[in-house]
Amino acid sequence: MILRPNVKLNLGLRVLGKRPDGFHELETLFIPCFEYCDELSIEPSWEFGIEIDGPCYRGWDPSGDLTARAWALLRDEFGIGPVHIHLTKNSPVGAGLGGGSADGAFALRMLNDIFGLGLTDAALAEFAARLGSDCPFFIYNRPMFATGRGEILEPFDIDLTPYRIEVAVPEGVAVSTKEAYTGIDAQEGGMPLEGSTTRQKDVLRLPVSQWRERLVNDFERSVFPIHPEIEALKQQFYKRGAVYASMSGSGSAVFALFPAIA
Question: I need a labelling partner for 131 at 20 to 30 A (CA). Which of 21, 64, 151, 222 fits?
Fold first, then answer.
């Protein structure tokens, strides 16, 4: 079985503060993006094995990849048999696009099908949350307003068909999630006022032309001073006529919405 895990974009991202469990309370709108897709194949095997290659593979230990962890999770829970995983990494790493999370979530879906586990999307999302905060979104892979640490999802209707989306990653620039959160914590989180979730949703329901100064990604405040080339890329999008531009997640990818050409 072969699938092509896609990445995601964050439309707005507020960091509301640090939780007692060490995670951060967030609110954001996840949308799927097909600018980059990995290639994932999983086949039953006599023993477990995993191979990772591709232009964006950076040599991490394959046994620790989220796809391998997804298999181990379901093996421990349901006693599924060994498989061979092959992952081709085409999505940028350290770009805030959730490529690794997508791989883990898609692996859960594939294993569910291969072994006939009969898990619902809701059940798969619960397992995905044990892999990572972004992973549950990719089980549904449609626009979702996320709260909690990103795992509490609510369907959100949004129509971006009048716009063309461009995504760019500054060459040689990667931002670790830890680095981004450290900067946020140093600024005491910039915690929005109570009720900000409702206001964030209200902004998302405004015309896209009104998002520029209203729909914000809190990570930009901490990441831009360290990586000015990311901010420069955002400004280049606006100079080219983007209606809205933003860093995705904790960076380093930047995306922009341009009017679609009829």
Answer: 222
